[in-house]
Design goal:
Elements (H helix, E strand, L loop, with lengths): L1 H20 L6 H4 L25 E5 L41 H8 L16 H6 L12 H6 L5 H19 L1 H10 L1 E5 L2 H8 L10 H21 L4 E5 L8 H7 L8 H21 L9 E5 L2 H9 L8 E5 L26 E3 L7 H14 L4
Parallel strand pairs: 1-2, 2-3, 3-4, 5-6
The chain binds 2-acetamido-2-deoxy-beta-D-glucopyranose (NAG) (3 copies).
The site of one 2-acetamido-2-deoxy-beta-D-glucopyranose has 2 residues, from loops.
Length: 377
């Protein structure tokens, strides 16, 4: 427990020092100094002219859906080393914060689009990759721009800037008309917000001028602005996730759950209040004059995930209060590495891979429940 705090404080301190050194914000132009995707030709990309089937999946958000963007930006929040990726093809540590696939991959695969959603940054994207969608997500990001800035990762606005750049590439390969059609008929998956509450509000001192209620209001306002900007860039079908039961995530149990590592009631309550406010705003924006033609969907992560945590056996898990990596009580990102931490014997028996992120099997079961209950669109 002490070492977790010490580690966390060290990361935070480093981040703050870097933040001060770099003055204010990372903007898209600093992100763009990284090796930016180059287009490589690929014959016969799939040409879907059907309005009902999404031709592509675009992903925005944080480490739940980052597929490797953080590998090429200047941040400590990364995981492109073993044991991350141990169950990915080739045991490849791609920068996905899990042992295998992350939700964007799983969703794209279930929609019959493709098996993996590549990161926009740092890879040589083929025409096929561009035509079928990429992830702009960045681990440790949040709707509150400060959340990303503290950890030197891409803000949601940075992600939108990259999306603009992406659209130009898409026009280049598909033509303006087809590109606009892909953008407007594709599915958008947006998963972030956890780090705003868990990190920025509850852990760092930077938002102490807000009480919880007003901070939640602020975050939902930022979220709302993001959806409107994304709509302005042509997106219509947005699936937006709420917060998980943050207090039951292993790292938060360790940090604030006492000796017994209980779920932290306050953090869960915060997630519930945030989710209600987010869902309300999503319903208000859905198809409104602010966002004509939009279809927004709120995804409840909280209920299915809490059920998985509370009833491990029902899902074939042995352990849901610790991560699979190392001791499972503090290892996450930098501290979950091959020199200090081995993965558990069977990740399929664990809901959590590290103290923050699910195993591939955990994500798979979570998505199954979400799709079975509400569907996505
Ligand atoms: C969409 O798919 C359906 C079923 O395959 C087909 O009947 C329809 O013609 C398609 N629409 C377009 C615009 O291609
Ligand atoms: C992308 O292609 C360039 C030029 O072919 C090459 O130098 C670079 O290493 C490639 N990057 C990746 C991530 O494969
Ligand atoms: C959004 O509007 C569509 C109709 O356009 C409706 O089917 C759907 O239930 C609405 N979603 C939410 C979250 O209110």
């Amino acid at each position: 427990m002490a070492s977790s705090r010490a580690w966390h404080n060290a990361v935070l301190l480093t981040a703050v020092v870097l933040l001060l050194r770099r003055s204010c914000c990372i903007d898209a132009s600093s992100a763009a100094t990284s090796p930016v995707a180059t287009v490589t030709a690929r014959p016969n990309p799939p040409s879907t002219t059907n309005q009902t089937r999404a031709p592509a999946l675009f992903v925005f958000g944080d480490s739940i859906v980052d597929s490797g963007n953080n590998n090429v930006i200047e941040t400590l929040i990364r995981c492109n080393f073993p044991p991350y990726g141990q169950d990915f093809p080739g045991h490849s540590a791609t920068g996905r914060f899990s042992n295998g696939k992350v939700p964007g991959d799983i969703l794209a695969s279930r929609m019959g689009i493709k098996e993996y959603v590549p990161p926009y940054l740092g890879t040589n994207l083929s025409d096929f990759d561009l035509l079928t969608g990429v992830s702009f997500a960045s681990g440790a990001s949040g709707f509150d721009p400060l959340t990303a800035k503290i950890m030197l990762v891409l803000t949601m606005d940075d992600q939108l800037e990259l999306f603009k750049e992406y659209k130009m590439k898409l026009e280049h390969i598909a033509g303006a008309e087809r590109a606009a059609e892909i953008v407007s008929t594709s599915m958008y998956l947006i998963i972030t917000g956890t780090d705003d509450l868990a990190n920025t509000y509850f852990t760092t001192p930077f938002r102490r001028n807000y009480d919880l209620e007003s901070y939640i209001e602020f975050v939902v306002q930022c979220a709302s602005e993001f959806f409107k900007k994304l709509h302005g860039l042509g997106a219509r079908r947005m699936n937006i996730a709420g917060a998980p039961p943050i207090g039951c995530v292993p790292s938060q149990r360790t940090n604030a759950g006492g000796l017994e590592r209980e779920c932290v009631a306050l953090y869960n309550q915060a997630a519930v209040v945030y989710n209600a406010a987010l869902e309300k705003e999503i319903k208000r924006l859905n198809g409104s004059d602010d966002m004509p033609g939009s279809v927004l969907k709120y995804i409840d992560l909280y209920t299915p995930l809490l059920d998985m945590i509370q009833r491990p056996q029902a899902y074939g898990f042995d352990v849901t209060n610790r991560g699979c990596c190392g001791t499972g009580v503090f290892e996450v990102t930098l501290t979950c590495n091959q020199y200090t931490a081995h993965a558990c014997k069977d990740p399929n028996k664990f809901l959590f891979w590290d103290t923050y992120h699910l195993t591939e099997r955990g994500y798979n079961l979570l998505l199954t429940q979400i799709i079975n209950r509400d569907g996505l669109h």
